[in-house]
Design goal:
The chain is of the alpha/beta class. 43% of the residues lie in helices and 20% in strands. Strands 2-1-3-4-5 form a five-stranded parallel β-sheet, with helices on both faces. β4, α4 and β5 form a beta-alpha-beta unit. It is globular, with a radius of gyration of 13 Å. The two termini are 15 Å apart.
Length: 120
């Protein structure tokens, strides 16, 4: 499970940017373009495969709070980070309380800050 990170964001450019910013790090990076795709990947790879899941908040059909809540049930020992450019109080509270996220980061997020959060 060590060093396997799952990024979930509906914007391919964001996922590509995250991969590029972490290319020098010792992480094996997986990505999904929706919450549904992320859950499928978790089921395929096994629920304890990833050490960290980083999810966008605003995605169609299933937002980050709902996705992280579902991942908490599937893989309770995996750290969850919410990364969003659209921070509002209600969705942040929902994500923290229901998804029990470890960190809440805003876009754009500096690669160093992201790495520190992943390592923590």
């Amino acid at each position: 499970m060590a060093n396997r990170i799952l990024f979930v964001d509906d914007d391919e450019n964001v996922v590509r940017g995250l991969r590029l910013s972490l290319r020098e790090q010792p992480y094996e990076i997986f990505s999904a373009l929706s919450g549904e795709e992320g859950l499928e990947l978790l089921n395929e790879e096994g629920p304890e495969t990833f050490s960290v899941i980083v999810s966008d908040m605003r995605m169609p059909y299933m937002d980050g709070a709902e996705f992280l809540t579902k991942t908490r049930r599937l893989c309770p020992d995996t750290s969850r980070i919410l990364l969003t450019g659209h921070a509002d109080v209600d969705s942040s509270i929902s994500a923290v309380n229901e998804g029990r996220i470890f960190r809440f980061l805003t876009k754009p997020c500096a690669p160093d800050e992201l790495c520190i959060s992943i390592e923590a």
